[in-house]
Amino acid sequence: MSRIRLILLDFDGTLVDTRRANARAYVETLREAGYAMTEEEYAARHFGVRCPEFLRSIGIDDPAEINRLRRRKIELYPRYFDLVALNRPLWEFCQQFRKQGGRVWIVSTGQRANIDNVMRHLHLEAGVDGIISALDAPQSKPDPGCFLKAMEIEGATPDETLIFEDSAVGIEAARRSGAAYFVVKL
Questions:
Q1: In this structure, is the dihedral angle defined by the CA atoms of residues 9, 128, 94 and 47, taken in order, positive or negative?
Q2: pLDDT tens track for 95-105
Q3: What confidence tens digit (pLDDT) does each residue in 25-67 have?
Q4: Does the structure show a pLDDT above 80 at 141?
Q5: pTM for the whole thing?
Q6: Alpha carbons 32 and 59: distance in angstroms, whole number
């Protein structure tokens, strides 16, 4: 067996608990646009789904409206950063791994602006070696492409990679990548 030299972290729900902040930002965005949804409904049914897919699933199909709502959600999201919580044990583990020469990437199909904003808020920017986000991974999880792309950039094989994931689609993507993985429950 190869030595693990690359850790890939999902962001929302794995490294950072963003469920309540995301729910509140989406509920406010949708309310402003005349759509009704509760935080509980969003958290139970839609958390972890890419914005365009989420909006289409609730009947919003117009590409211009989807883009407008996506931008508004990103704009509102920082209002709720007091609700985000770092998975400190996982973060500290990854920082020790980096000190020993390992590489750590965030691999998320979330929006890069959202990831960057939360990372700045929590002062995490210097603690990762790279980020793959929705713009970098055209296929949503469970497609393993986002994980495989990070491995390719780092020159790591699946046998040298460890993935941390929380969602069913993310776990399936990790499994399909061929790498070992841990399921995280916040």
A1: negative
A2: 999 999 999 99
A3: 999 999 999 999 999 999 888 887 888 889 999 999 999 999 9
A4: yes
A5: 0.89
A6: 16
Specify the residue for token string 């713009």.
135
pLDDT at residue 1 is higher than 70: no
| Bridge partners, 128 (sequence order) | none
3-state SS, residue 42: helix
Tokens (6 digits) for 150? 């990070």
Determine the Cα–Cα distance for residues 153 and 44; give it in Å rounded to an integer: 34
Q: Is 68 helix (H, G, I), strand (E, B) or coil?
A: helix
Strand partners, 9: 106, 164
For 12-80, list the strands marked E by DSSP: 16-17
Structure tokens of 19? 């469920």
The pLDDT score that the predictor gives to residue 147 is: 97
